[in-house]
Amino acid sequence: MKPEDSLSDDFLKQFKTGQQLNDFLGQIQKRVIEKMLEVELDGHLGYNKNELSKSKNAHGYGQKKIKTQYGESEIQVPHDRDASFNPMIVPNRESMVEGIEEVIVSLYAKGMSHK
């Protein structure tokens, strides 16, 4: 079964216009990108950002505007104390996110099939 076949008709009926669907996909994309950045920071730090360590502690978040096929979004980007974290998903000083949309929609569809 393809992931898109697992989405319920009831779920899909909530979208009355293309703009509503586009807004929803933009929100999902924003949340997934932020979670991916947190996981990427954990890998950079070598431990979960909520655990204590003597070096490279996580140091909060900064805001960044990104552009995707769903429009502009403002995301929260995690930072480490020594500013050595340069995310691969949304690199520093870049605002375009390309190619990630298809991955996010696919992941969301797979998640909906498990509910």
Summary?
The protein is α+β, with helices and mostly antiparallel strands and about 120 residues long. The chain has helices at about 10, 20-45, 100-115; strands at about 60-70, 70-80.
The largest beta-sheet arranges its strands as 1-2
What composes the largest sheet?
2 strands, antiparallel
Q: What is the residue-averaged pLDDT?
A: 80
Low-confidence region ranges: none
Strand content: 15-25%
Structural class, by secondary structure, is alpha+beta
Shape: elongated
Task: Output the keywords.
two-stranded antiparallel ribbon; elongated; alpha+beta; single chain
What does this structure look like?
With 115 residues, the chain is α+β, with helices and mostly antiparallel strands. The chain has one domain (3-7, 15-113). Helices cover 40% and strands 18% of the residues. The protein is built from 3 helices and 2 strands; from the N terminus they run ααββα. A two-stranded antiparallel sheet has the order 1-2. A hairpin with a 2-residue loop joins β1 (58-68) and β2 (71-80). α2 packs across α3 (100-113). The protein is elongated and about 50 Å long. It starts with 8 loop residues before the first helix and ends with a helix. The mean pLDDT is 80.
